[in-house]
Specification:
Blueprint (H helix, E strand, L loop, with lengths): L3 E5 L5 H11 L6 H9 L4 E7 L2 E11 L2 E9 L8 H13 L5 E7 L3 H9 L3 E6 L10 E7 L7
Parallel strand pairs: 4-5
Antiparallel strand pairs: 1-2, 2-3, 3-4, 5-7, 6-7
């Protein structure tokens, strides 16, 4: 996707983000939740943009030495084009340091997302029972650790 731009997510993007969020998730985040995440100085919030239209986004918060991937979504009309992959690649370009850790929760039924995360080195580390309030579905807890760099 030659015209795909990944840039920092801004408050001005939130109307488009909320529209994608509402179509993507049965229990979408509120505007206040996005505002809170954007206001955190240590987080990484990214927008995937094509011709000035937000087609995806990623929200990752920092807690001590752990990054928590809080939210990632792609517009339902733009899926299967590598947008989520590109967002994750940019996240790791910005955040990866030796021994850095990432974690996330994902619905156990969301096999496409689980496969995507596994391609980036995330591994299952357990479950949160009845984590999702809409249907009491379990969440798979996944972790990724950045390998130590070899010293020459």
């Amino acid at each position: 996707m030659n015209d795909l731009e990944i840039r920092p997510l801004t408050y001005a993007d939130l109307p488009q983000v909320i529209a994608i969020e509402r179509r993507a998730f049965p229990t979408p985040w509120s505007l206040a939740m996005f505002v809170l995440e954007l206001s955190k100085p240590a987080g990484i919030c990214l927008a995937a943009v094509i011709r000035e239209q937000v087609v995806g986004y990623l929200v990752c918060s920092r807690y001590d030495r752990v990054w928590h991937l809080m939210n990632i979504a792609v517009d339902d009309r733009s899926r299967r084009q590598g947008i989520a992959t590109t967002l994750l690649e940019r996240l790791f370009e910005l955040g990866d340091k030796p021994s850095e850790q990432y974690t996330l929760e994902v619905r156990t039924s969301n096999q496409a997302a689980i496969r995507l995360y596994e391609r980036f080195g995330f591994r299952s580390a357990g479950r949160r029972r009845a984590y999702y309030l809409d249907n009491r579905e379990d969440a798979l807890i996944m972790w990724r650790t950045v390998p130590e760099r070899a010293t020459a």
